[in-house]
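Quick one, tokens below:
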């Protein structure tokens, strides 16, 4: 897939991205708001890292390509999450939209760095973006460290529910396809499907749709005291985002991608 430059996304406008507080809010006046089609690349590994992005609605996937050519999803980006803040001059991974109707705000990196040089409070907020990314990475490592695939899938469900729909009950709509979940967990899509069926057979979850499920036994999914790392994950929801993950399903990429 060819990289999609910000100026070639489906829609593009310049205005404050939302009214809720976030680390780069004082740069909202210069933010570029882009509406993305499904599977559009927002930034590509090796391109100049000139923009810091924030997800406003939908979902995005940060990934790298393994030496064998397979994709490994290394971060799931939901409303409120930032990406594109790199240590070097170029992006070190590729990010693409994962859901129809994904909207991102782009902030000029040079403006953000100049603001951080003159404003210690802004510099701390910029660092917080990096800390949040590290927290998400730690959560993924702990999920991947589970022994069996059903345990990995169960931990994934808990993490998604915590991030997207805190306090909304036990009904969860997975915002990405099973193929994307498989690339996140480093297993096959078929294995993800079998694991979901196994969790349902055990009475831990109930599958009510292609991406919609109900948690029946949260304690079983949260076994081995996963509350510690869950509490470190930021759970943010913006007024402008798509319907909450626990209340409405996200359109799938294709009927076969689930």
């Amino acid at each position: 897939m060819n990289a999609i430059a910000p100026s070639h996304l489906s829609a593009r406008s310049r205005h404050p991205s939302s009214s809720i507080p976030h680390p780069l809010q004082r740069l909202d006046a210069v933010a570029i708001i882009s509406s993305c089609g499904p599977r559009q690349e927002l930034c590509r590994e090796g391109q100049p890292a000139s923009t810091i992005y924030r997800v406003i609605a939908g979902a995005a996937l940060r990934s790298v390509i393994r030496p064998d050519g397979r994709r490994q999803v290394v971060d799931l980006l939901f409303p409120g999450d930032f990406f594109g803040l790199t240590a070097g001059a170029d992006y070190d991974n590729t990010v693409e939209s994962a859901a129809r109707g994904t909207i991102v705000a782009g902030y000029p990196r040079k403006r953000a760095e100049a603001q951080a040089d003159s404003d210690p409070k802004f510099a701390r907020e910029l660092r917080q973006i990096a800390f949040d990314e590290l927290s998400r990475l730690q959560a993924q490592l702990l999920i991947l460290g589970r022994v069996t695939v059903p345990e990995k899938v169960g931990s994934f469900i808990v993490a998604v529910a915590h991030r997207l729909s805190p306090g909304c009950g036990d009904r969860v709509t997975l915002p990405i396809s099973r193929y994307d979940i498989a690339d996140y967990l480093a297993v096959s899509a078929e294995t993800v499907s079998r694991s979901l069926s196994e969790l349902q057979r055990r009475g831990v979850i109930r599958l009510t749709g292609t991406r919609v499920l109900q948690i029946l036994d949260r304690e079983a999914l949260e076994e081995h005291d996963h509350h510690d790392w869950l509490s470190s994950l930021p759970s943010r929801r913006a007024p402008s985002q798509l319907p909450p993950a626990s209340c409405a399903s996200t359109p799938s990429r294709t009927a076969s991608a689930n």
